Records
---
Amino acid sequence: MILTILTLFPSTIEGYLRESILRIAQEKGLVRFRLVNFRDYSTDRHRTVDDRPFGGGPGMVLKPEPVFAAVEDAEAKDGPYRKVLLTPAGRRFDQALAREFSREERLLLLCGRYEGFDERIRLGLRWDEVSVGDYVLSGGEIAALAVAEATARLLPGALGDPESAEQESFTAGLLDFPQYTRPRVFRGMAVPEVLVSGDHEAVRRWREEAARRRTAERRPDLRPESDPKAGTGG
Ligand code: 9D3
């Protein structure tokens, strides 16, 4: 997969891509990240990317020309992209959409800044408009990293153990069961007896039950994929 990120602040993203699962995925050749500063596609003397809104009002709006030029250049070089506009007005990003994105050959993420995008950016290119949740960020960069990481780790081979991807509780539509490591007793809190019993079937049942109880208590909106009455469950 080629994952291109259009941003005015590539350095905010760069460091993170060199760490963790994203670095591993790149080293394995599963994904190539391209960071593009679309200011480089501005043609005026001051390399302008934003301007005042017609009709008045506070703040600045991203101009269409540099964004179109950057997108068109990427597609001329690489071929057509699945294009994602990161915006608080978008569809909520979730595991199901991450899985969908992970099946794309080319994915482009556009990060906004300022008050928003000129509407012709939305209208003139085919976008999936995506938000990462109902809180206000200052731009799309952190959202782009969330989308990039959730997507890249689903590429076949990105996670060392294919079972770990399979068993991930979110994929199953459940929260994690409680985990313990040594010591057996810490500040008076003991590890549940079943986990040290050596009875693997009992451990499996305990974990399943604990995950179900936790999910019902905390996230009743999450439903296992296997439940036909449920949503996608991720
Ligand atoms: C002050 C302007 N806001 C009026 C409600 C709109 C606004 C525009 C741009 C608010 C935030 C932003 C910057 N955020 C993003 O670019 C963004 C975002 C987010 O803020 N929350 C959740 N997901 C996303 S994806 C991109």
---
Amino acid sequence: MQDGFGRKIDYLRISVTDRCNFRCQYCMSENMTFMPKSELLTLEEITLIAERFIGHGIRKIRLTGGEPLVRRDMSDVIQRLGRKVESGDLEELTLTTNGSLLREYADHLAQHHVARINVSMDTLDPDRFSEITRGARVEQVLDGISAAKEAGIQVKINMVALRDFNQADLLPMAEYCAEQGHDLTVIETMPLGDTGSDRKLEHISAEEFIAPLANNYEIKPIAHRSSGPAKYAAVDPLGLRLGMITPLSNNFCDGCNRLRLTTDGKIFMCLGHNAHVDLRGAVRNEGIEAVDRLLQKALKLKPLRHEFNAQLDGSAEKLERHMNVTGG
Ligand code: SAM
Ligand code: SF4
């Protein structure tokens, strides 16, 4: 698959639920409301749509949300899509999770060909963790990460960079990740949905955020690439691979290879635009073949780049959609 700008599209992110057991301050508002269950794609719909996408050239799928592991039939979703890896139709099935339910799910994930996962954790400090997630316990996440490691799953930690909040937590986080053998990726906040906080004030560029690490370690850019947009550096002599996702400070849209399927069956071609096509309605009315037609439409609609900087400074229309609906 190619979009209108000649970019190869082979990566699909599926948000399997908009619900979550955390309320991270940069992701959701305190009083978030969620979709009625009838709006969600069913297990059968997710499987059929994913198969159709694979037929069109999708090679990698990441399951996300909301918190994907709170979906009731999540073990079936994992099992069904894991079969696509087993058969060689899919190169990779991955997951982004807040880690809280990994103790329960780690073996099941490993058994069904999920070899790598991303776990979001913005600080190791129990009080600050509880503050940023509005009430969750970092100990539970750390235990979940250990369970994933014990099951043989490779873990990458995602840390959202928040000005005046967690910059001092980067050093202990880097040391923890190096010791445990996890990669660490710093992500700049994106202005998605109203969360009750000032997006402009919370923003800090990844470069500024990681700068204090240089007081203790040497940071050298390296050529390593993953299937996502992170650029990497080696932190020596710690032996840590540090990724940076810089949607605002250093645009990476030229290399975008992704489509996103939302909880309610819409294809979004870009996290930062409202353009989308409604697959669920078409599939429920016309059958699964509707995917082929709508996918072509979606590829033509994929914009060249997001407008997060303009949305942040108020010169472009704000995005109402929160991150948990489209999936991070
Ligand atoms: N619940 C899972 C988790 O937290 O990993 C998966 C969904 S979450 C929306 C996916 C990723 O998006 C997480 O790493 C989270 O930190 C990040 N995220 C959420 N809101 C964000 C925002 N406004 N800007 C940047 N990253 C955000
Ligand atoms: Fe939940 Fe993930 Fe959003 Fe946090 S970032 S509220 S864990 S969906």
